[in-house]
Each structure stands twice: as C-alpha cells, then as structure tokens.
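Hey,
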Amino acid sequence: MSIDLIQMQPGETGIVKEIQGGHGFIRKLQSLGVRPGKKITKVSSHFWRGPQTVEVDNMQVAIGFGMAKRILVEVKR
C-alpha cells in the first residue's frame, strides 16, 4: 500500500517508492538521504501542518509538510 509521508503513523516504517517533484526538489531530498528504495521510519509529526521528523540511515531529518506530501512510501499494514 503506497501512502504519502503525512499519512504514516509515528513509529511506522516503509520504503520510499516515489518522489513527486522537479529535479531541484529531488536533489534536495537526496542530499538529506531520502531517495527511492530507502527504508524510512516516521519518528514524529507536529500538530497542524508542521514538519515531519523521519529517520533515514540512523539519522533524523525534519521535512516540511508540503515536501512530505510529495513523498510516497510503501508500507505494510
């Protein structure tokens, strides 16, 4: 089941399937370690459209709400 990063629950793990955006957007996420095929775990999210904190390669990264909506993740529920 593919969902966007916003819909993931804290503590849930999945594999990044697709990043919807232009080359600059994709390059920015890749510099943070977020790229298709990577295992990603949602650590926390802030109330009311705040940043989403995720863990990739044992490193925690905060991703803005708008960016997180464009990251599709394959999760098993």
